[in-house]
Write a structure and sequence with these properties.
400 residues; alpha+beta; 6-stranded mixed β-barrel; 12 strands
Amino acid sequence: MFRYAIKMLFGDSAKFYGILLGLGFASLLIAQQASIFVGLMSRTFAFIGEVGHVDIWVFDPTQSYVDEPKPLRETAIDRVRGVTGVAWAAPLYKGLLVATLPDGKRQICNVIGIDDDTLAAGPAEIVAGSLADLRQPDAVMVQVASSQQNMMFPAELAPGAMPAPGQRIDPKGPKRPVQIGDIIELNEHRAHVVGLVKCAETFTPGPTVYTVYSRALTYAPPARRVMSEILVKATDGTDPVELCARIREQTGYEALVPWDYSTRTLGYWMRETGIPINFGIAIALGFFVGVAIAGQMFYNFTLDNLRYFGAFKAMGASTGTLLGMVALQALVAGVLGLGLGLGAVSAFGLNASGGKLAFKMLWQIPLIAAGAVLIICILASVVSMWKVVRLDPADVFKGA
């Protein structure tokens, strides 16, 4: 009997493909929007995860997320170093500055100033150069392969060369990516590129520029408070969570382990922005579209095949067997539609990786899409089962 149910499903090709289209589109939209949402939200705390060799982040207690500019006093680091259990503490500068390129083009950059001595919070992957080169005069390291915006130089200028007096450079002329030896200006201060790095994509626009902390202060606008955060390493045998409580008690500053700081940053963007609502509406729309298309097509498919169900019932098939046939048809259509949608999302994600679009598919997302498709199939089959349960074989044969 169940073999005939599959033949019935595949035999009506028009409605079968319509059901697949509805289920595939629903799973595609749900998985795609969920993956883009996760990718976008993961960028809000990506910088915290990239600095993986510190135990604690210390910052202003009123600061809600990692990119919020609420700097500390310079004396804050001495107070933190005086807390028992702190092996070392390093200052960190993080801010948005305008870089001026040799052709006069200006570009916003995310400038990171790391500790001069320990070079803590340096880039995770160095493509060219050495981290120690940052100790050279005016040295900076620039992010390459950024999906947000690469730092591009005029192709006619060699690395380190500046336009000659009176030389005009076409702003729309050919460009080349940044190279070691290039010269830029950060807030009207000279910066010499000594290295190229790769780092995580963040929520802030523009490429990331690394330099030492003392030099970053010369690039930053003058202010009484410039230290963005303090990075802390706990001594051996010290529980970082207990040390956080000790730092809060003795200094009055907020102290969190990286996971809690990431959660705090993510919570801010989830609560205070409309991003979750916007993506939630798109995901819900995909679900209801799947219910409308697949449900209607499956219901019409059952109506068109009532005569076959009536014949099976007249030959002695029980109502439970007929309901099992309908459930099997819905299950087969759901599995095929889910595979079609997830396959399309996977292909989309492979093409989107490395581009400007944030995309990150966690293992939970296919399960969520599968659950949504299962609910759609249940709703569609329940409506169809109602017609099968009330089916009278005599009415079918009278209609024939």
